[in-house]
Amino acid sequence: VGQLTGANARVAHSISTVVISSNGEHSNQTIGGIVGIVENNATVENSYAEGEINNAKPFARVGGVAGSLWTQEGGTDNNTGRLTNVLSDMNITNGNAISGYHFNGIKETNVYSNKENKVVNVQA
Fold it and tell me: Domain GLUG spans what residues (predicted)?
């Protein structure tokens, strides 16, 4: 749901309160509490997400902040987005509290969640 794209596009100082129910069943479907896809050096910074996303099936990329930080079309780290100074207070069913899709080289700085299902690559 939603896509932040374009060289150096950004969402800053955002507060998102959401309740989303979804039936995403394919890995090319992305759902996030602030944005679905963050790509091409786009940034979500100094932002906070709270609420819940209930995805009925475990196949879509579902994240409390962003569904994905990597475009499915690009295939390289150069096409990734970035999360900086972000807090997630999201309850997620069939996804992660921060990013729904994580990979080596993910660009996250000062990203936190108090939930159990946070992405494993979060850097403190």
Answer: 27-54
